[in-house]
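debug: dumping io for the single-chain case to check the tokenizer round-trip. Nothing else runs in this session.
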Amino acid sequence: MNNTPHPNSSVPQPRASDLARIQGGGLTLLVVTQKDPLSLYLFLNGREIAQPDVESMTILLQGPNADSEGTIHASLSYYVPSISGGKNTQTIALFPGTVEILVETRRIQISCPFPNTFDGLWVGLGLRPDGSPHELTGLQAFHFLLEGTLLHAELTWVSGETETILDE
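debug: decoded output
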């Protein structure tokens, strides 16, 4: 394997450490290792949030139609220690950023580099043998919910057909 630039090239080779960076916001990684009983690992920008501290995670992508300009929303609510010794709920927006969800043999990837706009929005499912996901085109809506032991994801195509991806 030879990935070096041509010896006569005047373009400097970028540093591998720079190429490895995740661009466009943060990264949220949800790995569900078992659905019944629900067992998961959640990482927010490399920091683990323990399963008992995860309150909910929601993603709503609703494409524009005659009645609406559309909706792009992704949030994570989790418990953080409070000054009084208890716990408070903290809710953060996940976009701009990338969310990757792995549930047993299923994979969902969503990248949204700009909040509140469909520009650059990308949704992929699964994992092909070459390592690439199936990029979704013709998507009208995507809904994801993790709350307590509820784990659900579905999508709606522009044709109006709805498919469940995850249901627990």
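debug: round-trip ok. The radius of gyration is 19 Å.
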